[in-house]
Amino acid sequence: MSLVIFLSDLHIIEGTEDEEQRLLDIVDDAAHIESAPPIVHVAVGGDCIEGTDIHRQQNAMVHIPAREQVNNALRLFKKFILKLRKAFPNAQIIITWVGGNHGRTSHTAHPSNNWDIELGQRLANWVYDREMPDIVVRVQTRAWHAKFQVHHTVFYMIHKIGGKPTHLETNARKGVIYERLMQHKADVVLLGHYHRGTHHCHQNGTLKLVVNGAFSECEPFYREENGYWSRPGQAIIMVPEEGVPMEEDVHWARWD
Predict the structure, then answer these.
(1) CA 24 to each of CA 41, 47, 226: distance values in angstroms, whole numbers, following the listed order
(2) Number of folded domains that form the chain
(3) Are strands 188-191 and 153-158 parallel, antiparallel or unpaired?
(4) Dist CA 239 CA 250 (whole Å)
(5) Which domain CATH number covers 154?
(6) Tens digits of per-residue pLDDT, 228-250?
(7) What string of DSSP letters covers 6-47?
(8) Which pLDDT score, from 0 to 100, does residue 174 have?
(9) Three-state DSSP state, 255
(10) For 88-110, what is the mean pLDDT?
């Protein structure tokens, strides 16, 4: 079994000790699930930082510039990578990175003009400078989505699906997910943005959709857009060498 660690919607502002410990605890959870995976794929699905000027109430809550948020998040991610490498010394570690809507420098900016992307690129440069050949960092600079494969399972990761926000469990939203799976010839959609902390499967039990929860316990980060509350959490997915993940292969790093 290999592992996919899905990180999204961290909304890091100050890089507090609590946020650092939560991120490091994910490594412990992953190691407890599978102690010696051949591949650990870290899928980073956007909104790593909180950003600025994204919504009307934000600037009353956030007093730290986006560039400083990037510095704080980078410090946490460096510690996460070092702990991950120590926990899985024989694994190939691959990081696939996309930006989110909170990373935008403006509402109309191209996806490459994104603080999340700068964070990913700075992390990639740090890995390269430290000469860690067992770690590969792939930053998607031109879109908010990316596709990658682990064994025989194809994952399609996107921060947000377009259209008017609706509750994810409506038939209409499920239809959008099926369209994405068929369009991109993927097995599983990894979805950020909605802060639901849930997953859905096909009728035969194979995994179809994983939606991360949030990272912080305070408003507005772990409330889904239509007011449905979820416990904060990040998904860890076991990927078999043959076949695709099943419902029981999804585990959650949760914080109560």
Answers:
(1) 16, 18, 30
(2) 1
(3) parallel
(4) 9
(5) 3.60.21.10
(6) 556 678 999 999 999 999 999 99
(7) EE----BSS--HHHHHHHHHHHHHHHHH-SS-SEEEEEEES-
(8) 66
(9) coil
(10) 89
Model pLDDT, residue 165:
47
**Quick one: three-class SS letters along 90-116?**
CCEEEEEEECCHHHECCCCCCCCCEHH
User: Cβ neighbours of residue 34 under 8 Å, at least 6 residues apart?
Assistant: 1, 2, 3, 238
DSSP β-ladder status, 233-239 and 2-7: antiparallel
Mean pLDDT (whole number) for 196-218: 85
Range(s) of the domain holding residue 80? 2-254
Q: Inform me whether the pLDDT recorded for 129 exceeds 80.
A: yes
pLDDT number for residue 171? 56
For 33, phi and psi rounded to 5 degrees?
A: -70, -45
Triad 245, 251, 254: Cα angle to 5°: 155
Average pLDDT of 214-233? 59
What was the pLDDT predicted at 205? 92
From residue 243, give the alpha-carbon distance in Å to each of 1, 238, 249. Answer: 11, 11, 12
For 103, half-sphere exposure in the C-beta direction (CA atoms, 13 angstrom radius) is 33
Q: 3-class DSSP state for residue 131? A: coil
CB 94 within 8 A of CB 136: yes
